[in-house]
Each structure stands twice: as C-alpha cells, then as structure tokens.
Amino acid sequence: MRKVVIVLALLLVPSALFAQGILRVSQPLGQVEWRAASSRTFVSLTNQAVQAGDEIRTGVGGSVILTAPDGTYMVVSENSRVIVEDFWNGNFKSIMNLMLGQVRFYIQRLGGRPSPYSVRTPTALIAVRGTIFDVFVDDAQFAEVRCLDGRVTVESIGVSDREVILEPGFKTLVRPGEAPLRPVRLDAELQRNRIASVKRKSAPELDANGMPSINILGNDNDRRNRTSDPLRTPSRTNENTERAKPGTMTFPD
Fold first, then answer.
1. Which residues pair with residue 81 across a beta bridge?
2. How far apart, in Å, are the Cα atoms of 203 and each of 209, 212, 220?
3. Cα–Cα distances in angstroms (integers) from residue 96 to residues 10, 67, 88, in the given order
4. Rounded to an integer, what distance in angstroms lies between the CA atom of residue 182 and that of residue 234?
5. What are the residue ranges spanned by the domains of the chain?
6. Average pLDDT over every residue of 103-108
7. How far apart are CA 6 and CA 164, in angstroms?
8. What pLDDT, in 10s, does the model give residues 4-16?
9. Cα distance between residue 91 and residue 20, in whole Å
10. In this structure, which topology does domain 2-195+237-244 adopt according to CATH?
C-alpha cells in the first residue's frame, strides 16, 4: 500500500508543477488567437486556460486578460504577441515573454509577501515584486518599460552587468545590445535613436624629426579630454537608479 501511495505521488508531482504554469483566459475581445505549444496552428482563443509554451497573438482592436493562480493578471493589448513561460531564473519566476506589442502587468502581493515574477522581451529582462507596470516592444525590438506602482528592475539581455531601477512615474528604454537608458519621468522623451556625429580628423602637425606632435592628444575628439562636456558624468553610487548589477537583486517587503 505504501509503495502504491509513493508511485501515485510521483505521478502527480509533474502534473502539479505543470499546473502552476497555467494562466486563465478572460475577456477576449476582437481578434485574439492562440497556438498550443504542441501545435503549429493558431485558433480563436476563448475563455479557457493556456499553459507554458503556448503563444497568444492579438490583431487590430484585440485584447485579452491572462490571470495567474495567485491573482496576478496581465492585459494584452492589440497587435501583440506573447509566449507563456513558467521557469525560475534566480530568485524570480519568468511568467511571460513579450515578443511584440504592449502588456500591462498587475503583480499581486499575497499575505504581505510580493510575488517574485519576471518578464522577458527579446532584449530586456524585467524583475518585479508587487507592482503595476507597462512593457512595450516594437518591430525593432526596442523595449520600453514604465513603472506605475511599486518598483521595477530592468536589465538588458545582451548587457547583463548593468541595470536600472524604476520608481513609480519613471520609464526606461532598452535597445538591442545596449544597457537600459537612464530612467526619465513618464512625460519625458526617451532617446529612441542614437545619432553619432563623425568628424574627420585633421592631419597632425609634425615636429622637427618629422614625427607627429604630441600635442595632438590634447586636440583630438576624445570626450575624456573635455572636462566641460555635459555628457561626461562621474561613476554612479548604489543610491542612484542606474548602477552596476549586484550579485542578487533584493527588494524591500
């Protein structure tokens, strides 16, 4: 009898773990389609459940709400593509990969302890605890993150040694292969495109021996030699929102 109980328990463990990755679907509006992880075909999404590996896409005017077992829910807006996830990355559980479009996240706090969720995009990793935030991903895979409540930590998947912390009312942008931009207020403009001014250097003056003069070092375009440059900023401290990534991200309860 004891052996039977053990066998049944072992059979039920994978099912219980898999059930944790189930999201409940509600209020699908307009064009909302779903593709199971085991399928290549999209079908209309109704009030059902979706699981880890499933993909959801919305068309013009389409939207849907996905709810986790702890009450955390996500509002997927029109023209979006998301993949449901369920795996732990360090201290945070990845719940979704937003490939394109916009999603608003409402991460719940149960029993005074926040749910440690993370969200991925093709270029950014967003870690949260009990907060409300928006994530936008465009065709160029630029990821814009806006914090509406609580605190959000954002890092680039390609540059994982730098992160920014968003307080309520701030946003940042992650471009492919670059660290997140310095946070700005929600009503401020983010620099989506970087424009570099390239100037041709003049030929260096020669000394009496026909060698380039050492004075060229003081007259080149190296930003480090211009102390009055407004973009030349000192290194940041841990009190700032942009910082070197610590070994473990911690948040106040």
1. 57, 100
2. 16, 9, 11
3. 28, 12, 12
4. 14
5. 2-195+237-244
6. 95
7. 47
8. 433 344 333 333 3
9. 16
10. Jelly Rolls (2.60.120)
